Amino acid sequence: MLPFRIITRTVWVLSLVSLLTDMASEMLYPVMPFYLESIGFSIVLIGVLEGFAEAIAGLSKGYFGKLSDLKGKRVPFVQIGYAFSALSKPLMAVAVFPLWVFFARTLDRLGKGIRTGARDALLSDEATPATKARVFGFHRSMDTVGAVAGPALALVYLYFYPGQYRTMFLLAFVPGLLAIVLTYLLKEKPKPAQPHIQKISFFYFIRYWKEAPATYRQLVVGLLLFALINSSDVFLLLRVRQAGLSDVQAIGAYIFYNLIYALAAYPFGILADRIGVKRVFLIGLFLFCIVYAGMIVVNTLSGFVFLFFLYGLFAAATEGVAKAWISNITPATETATAIGTYTGFQSICALLASSLTGWIWFQFGTGMAFGITAVTTLLLLLYFSWVVKAPENS
Q1: Confidence category of residue 314, pLDDT binned at 50, 70, 90
Q2: CB 247 within 8 A of CB 157
Q3: Distance, CA of 113 to CA of 161 (rounded, Å)
Q4: Per-residue confidence (pLDDT) for residue 82, from 0 to 100
Q5: pLDDT digits over 174-202, tens only?
Q6: By the 8 A CB rule, do 62 and 344 touch?
Q7: What is the DSSP string of 25-94?
Q8: How many CB atoms lie within 10 A of CB 288?
């Protein structure tokens, strides 16, 4: 039975909104590389598109996170952000010109940038330092249920209408619209706005980095180095296709990964609250290393299923846990700014990671691309073990 005193009404609403939004996004994500290839995108251009889209999301997270903290408001940012992401889905079906595809994908990621800091601050406000990993883990779990349902719907659709990708972008608007409606059930907790709201630039997160405590910078340096090698999941799907598996098998493996992620995120959150966020995060990094090393040698369906199982455990042990870790070492009045700053720098790393991985793959092959990632992850395990301290309450 769920601990309802920990999982509050606000956490439930935000989790359901994320579930529906992720359902819409994940209907499209596993077929996105195949769709882009079908309209003439090369592997390098796919990498640039994914990196650029994530860069827009991350850079805007820093700005809108700070704006949310300054205004003392969260809900309006959540509502606008989810609305932008929902509207981007039908826009992808309007035209296949590269610039238009870039625009629609960017609008989706801009919506993520607007809402993320404010949403995570709302989640943080609903928890205590001893329960934050559970709250973030529950949210990630519900979010990932949508990531299971979305590709499953895509799989059924493609079974009956193979290759008809553009109609899927129109269908994905339905759960996105439901998510927008649910955001209006959120209630804003009164928070004092700063009396004189300073003007902030789009790149405010660079300034906050200089003002942040040393413990925050040590943690985020490690997270950003990891972001530099953690390229888009699109490359994992392309690796599955490269091994000769079909679209249906590739999407099925991706569904399985998300199912494991959804089932494991909340238990890993509980574990992180009990034994510490650092220990659980290190477990996740180790699993990530195994996955990327395995991608070099595995060529069978059963092998890929096992690797995607480990990949789901990795995501469950790191994504929500990392945000809980950051929110536990920063003041409540700076939560959106702190997470936004981290994701702002992370976006730059994401742009480099996906673009660089695409280039290495193109020039030197799959083994080199995944091998560099695996070896670098081992070095990062040493950094987090020896340099980054666990939070005092963890």
Answers
A1: very high
A2: no
A3: 33
A4: 93
A5: 999 999 999 999 987 766 555 555 667 67
A6: yes
A7: HHHHGGGHHHHHHHTT--HHHHHHHHHHHHHHHHHHHHHHHHHHHHHT--HHHHHHHHHHHHHHHHHTTT
A8: 25
| pLDDT, tens only, 267-304 | 998 898 888 889 999 999 999 999 999 999 988 888 99
- Taking alpha carbons only, the member of 224, 168, 255 closest to residue 347 is 224
356-367 pLDDT, tens per residue? 888 888 888 888
Query: What's the average model confidence in pLDDT over 250-265?
Result: 85
Q: Are 78 and 118 in contact (CB under 8 A)?
A: yes
Q: Tokens 């607007």 sit at which residue? A: 114
Radius of gyration (C-alpha) of the chain in whole angstroms: 20
φ, ψ for residue 104 (rounded to 5)? Answer: -65, -45
pLDDT at 2: 43
Does pLDDT of 11 surpass 70?
yes
Task: Give the number of C-alpha atoms closer than 13 A to the C-alpha of residue 335, restricted to the C-beta side.
Answer: 25
The answer to whether the pTM exceeds 0.70 is: yes
The structure tokens 């846990």 sit at 321
Measured between alpha carbons, how far is 27 from 172 in angstroms, rounded to an integer? 7
Q: Which two tokens stand for residue 61?
A: 């997270």
Distances from the Cα of 319 to the Cαs of 67, 72, 245, 311, 328, in angstroms? 24, 26, 28, 12, 15
C-alpha to C-alpha distance for 108 and 92, rounded to whole angstroms: 10
**How many C-beta atoms lie closer than 10 Å to residue 206's C-beta?**
12
- Mean pLDDT, to the nearest integer, of 352-376? 87
CB atoms under 10 Å from CB of 371, counted, come to 17
CA-nearest of 100, 355, 153 to 235 is: 355
Mean pLDDT rounded to a whole number for the chain: 83
Cβ(55)–Cβ(160) below 8 Å: no
State the DSSP code for 186. Answer: -
